[in-house]
Design brief:
The complex is a heterodimer of chains A (about 110) and B (about 120). Chain A has about 110 residues and is mostly beta strands. Chain A has no helices and 11 strands. In chain B, a hairpin with a 4-residue loop joins strand 7 and strand 8. With about 120 residues, chain B is mainly beta. Classes of the chains: A mainly beta (about 110), B mainly beta (about 120). Chains A and B meet through strand 5 and strand 10 of A and strand 5 and strand 9 of B.
C-alpha cells in the first residue's frame, strides 16, 4: 500500500498571500495524483488531477506540480473561500486508493 | 449535471447493520466505478472499497473485509454499501464517489469526481 504524507498539518495564511502545500508518496505514483478541497460540513471537491490539471470550474489561482513522489499544491492568492482542508490522493496503484492526512489552511 | 445523491442519516445500535444508497444521475451509471469513503468526525478520508456497476465486481479495503458489501441496481442507477457488525468506531460520514471510466475491462481517470453529499451513520447504544 502506498502511504501519502502531507505537510504541514496546519498552514496559517493571510488573505491575499500564497499558500504552498506538500504531499509525498512512499513510492512513485507517476503523475497519478489528485488534490481535493473540503470545507466544513461539505463533501470533498476535486481540484486537481494528473498532478497538475485543474478540474472543471476550478480557478486559475490553484495550481499543482510534481511527479514521482513529491507534489505541491499552490494557491497563488488566498481568497476567503479557500480556507479549508486539502487532501492529496494517489490513484497509480489501486486498490487501495490512499489519501494523505490533510492540510488545514486557516486564516492567520 | 453529474450528481450522486445519498440516503439520509442513520442511527444504529452496536452489532446492527446499515445500508446506504447512492443514486447517480447525469451520466451512464454502468460506465464508471463507484467508490465508498468514510470520514470520522475531525478525521481524514478513509477508502473503504469500490464497485464496477457494469460487472458488479468489487474490491474492499482489508480493514473492512468480511463486514462490507457493495451492490448495485442498474435499473435505477443506484449503488449500495452495507456495513455489518457495527461498533461505535464506525460512527462517521460515509461518502460515495464516482471513480474511473471503465471500458473493455480497462479503467481510466481513476480519481474521484463527483462525491455524494455524505450520509452520517451514528452507532450508539
Amino acid at each position: 500500500e502506498i502511504v501519502m504524507m502531507q505537510s504541514p498539518a496546519t498552514l496559517s495564511v493571510s488573505p491575499g498571500e500564497r499558500a504552498t502545500l506538500s504531499c509525498r508518496a512512499s513510492q512513485s505514483v507517476s503523475s497519478n495524483l489528485a488534490w481535493y478541497q473540503q470545507k466544513p460540513g461539505q463533501a470533498p471537491r476535486l481540484l486537481i488531477y494528473g498532478a497538475s490539471t485543474r478540474a472543471t470550474g476550478i480557478p486559475a489561482r490553484f495550481s499543482g506540480s510534481g511527479s514521482g513522489t513529491e507534489f505541491t499544491l499552490t494557491i497563488s492568492s488566498l481568497q476567503s473561500e479557500d480556507f479549508a482542508v486539502y487532501y492529496c490522493q494517489q490513484y497509480n496503484n489501486w486498490p487501495p486508493w490512499t489519501f494523505g492526512q490533510g492540510t488545514k489552511v486557516e486564516i492567520k | 449535471q453529474v450528481q450522486l445523491v445519498q440516503s439520509g442519516a442513520e442511527v444504529k445500535k452496536p452489532g446492527a447493520s446499515v445500508k446506504v444508497s447512492c443514486k447517480a444521475s447525469g451520466y451512464t451509471f454502468t460506465s464508471y466505478d463507484i467508490n465508498w469513503v468514510r470520514q470520522a468526525t475531525g478525521q481524514g478520508l478513509e477508502w473503504m472499497g469500490w464497485m464496477n456497476p457494469n460487472s458488479g465486481n468489487t474490491g474492499y479495503a482489508q480493514k473492512f473485509q468480511g463486514r462490507v458489501t457493495m451492490t448495485r441496481n442498474t435499473s435505477i442507477s443506484t449503488a449500495y454499501m452495507e456495513l455489518s457488525s457495527l461498533r461505535s468506531e464506525d460512527t462517521a460520514v460515509y461518502y460515495c464517489a464516482r471513480g474511473g471510466y471503465c471500458t473493455g475491462g480497462v479503467c481510466l481517470n481513476n480519481w474521484f469526481d463527483p462525491w455524494g453529499q455524505g450520509t452520517l451513520v451514528t452507532v450508539s447504544s
